[in-house]
UniProtKB/TrEMBL annotation:
Sulfatase N-terminal domain segment(s): 29-335
InterPro entries from the UniProt entry: Alkaline_phosphatase_core_sf, Sulfatase, Sulfatase_CS, Sulfatase_N
Keyword Metal-binding: yes
Source organism of this protein record: Maribacter hydrothermalis
Name of the protein this chain belongs to: N-acetylgalactosamine 6-sulfate sulfatase
Amino acid sequence: MTACLLLLFTTSCAEKVKENSSKSEIKKPNVILFLADDQGWGDLNSSGNRNLNTPNIDALKTNGASFNNFYVQPVCSPTRAEILTGRYFTRTGVYETSSGGERINLNETTIADILKKAGYHTAAFGKWHNGMQPPYHPNSRGFDEYYGFASGHWGNYFSPMLEHNGTLVKGNGFLVDDLTDKGLEFIENNKTEPFFLYLPYNTPHSPMQVPDEFWNKMKDKSFDFLSDEHVNEDLQFTKAALAMVENIDYNVGRITDKVKSLNLEDETIIIYLSDNGPNAYRWNGGMKGKKGNVDEGGVRTPFYIQWTNHIQKGFMIDEIASGIDILPTLTGLLSIPLRTKMPIDGEDLSPLLLGETIENKNRFIYNHWNGKTSIRSQNFRLDNENRLYDITNDRAQLKDIASSNTDIVKVMLEAKNNWEIETINTTKENDNRAFTLGYPKAIYTQLPARDGEAHGNIKRSNRWPNDSFFTNWKSVNDAITWNVEILEEGRFQVKMYYTCPEKDLGAIVELSFETSKIAAKITKPFNPPLVGKEEDRVPRMESYVKEFKPLNLGVMTLPKGKGTLTLKAIKVPNGQVGDFRLLQFKKVE
């Protein structure tokens, strides 16, 4: 009898272990997150715009759920920070789009951190815009692989200088196509394991460059829709932007076709959205505002999410939602514990997506930029001037109803004021974060002209710093400096990327930090032309760019601590030193 009971118990335990083992081996769903750059809500056929065709993006709406009232921030880096952390960007250290103000604080947890810990393979291919130097770099924020550019914008979209896990490389063809190629390769390499693929594309952000096959279809088209601000609309710019969106759609189709061909559609969550409103006046559903503005037109984005056989096809959701909801919603859909160092602002909307009802909490969503804040409830928007609009009936914000709804204004105004006091933590005036060097887990670190300060004759190639270089370097009294923090003492091979015509050769440049110094002489000419203008469909406001040549400055020992890194010339025998693009540090043993 005892033997029988023991056998029965052993068999029961074995079956239970087998059952648990089987459950643990179930592959978690993959996640693919597309993020367009400067695409407006109205830049899609599925939004009602008949001036372009976007069948692949539209299919995500048709085959999944769409949010009619989804909001992001008015510009790039704040939205990206919110998507990655689930927190309002004003809490995360982000307050600008360049010069260090775009960085996410190191105490923040990203969605890639969470998914990597849960066993996911993670990759980001595209425009990062939340910190360049490790540990702000994507490879230090949960992404196993990174390919793209960490700055806010790039000056050339055809085979430009990029980076791959910190190593400088040359791109291959049109940038969005190239990023998609990397995404396809990543999917193929990880098809049997759960993966998170983040594709933050760089278009339709200017410069307005797009391959001929997309431009030729758009350039002579007669438009049905014009902006309500059509007197300010540049039709050439609009056509370029929509051609770029059609290129995005083509690449979304390449990714979704790959998912289908590998029979991964039922186990892959695919999300598509943009990071802010349109980057110029063009048709946007009659909404007020564009990129940079805290009104509806500057912050409303399409948001489509497809998960075949889990999320109902064609499901349209009216509840307000925000970029801060993406992280908690994904962890909810994936049944992954939401463990972060800092409290989350976003809400888990996974029950809503899976057909359940959620409690209406009289939620507010906040939009902020450049000292201006507006607040959105389910039905109303209180704008920066404290005007009140019934968005359900007045998306264009034409009729201020504040005077007849003073109770609503009072509640929303109090919430807005409290939010500003509570969340706006970091500003340019109180940001004491230096640019980091010597992060123990990183081999490579870039210090670009973008993050440097020019002294003397030296000038920036353009007022927008993200893809600029320094020029007019003529004297031993000129210098470029960086406020840096060496996180760990080490030895670094340093290369300076420069251009110099043959007639100006011979300058000796010196890099110094405290008592450490290295120097080298410029002996090889390199004077390529500026590029980009020939590919631009409309004139740009950003800097034109060119190739730069690496000069080996030598090996430098850097002690731990904060200080000023200085690049200067100690000899200028001819007219100038040359133009400067960046320093690349490589840790050596």
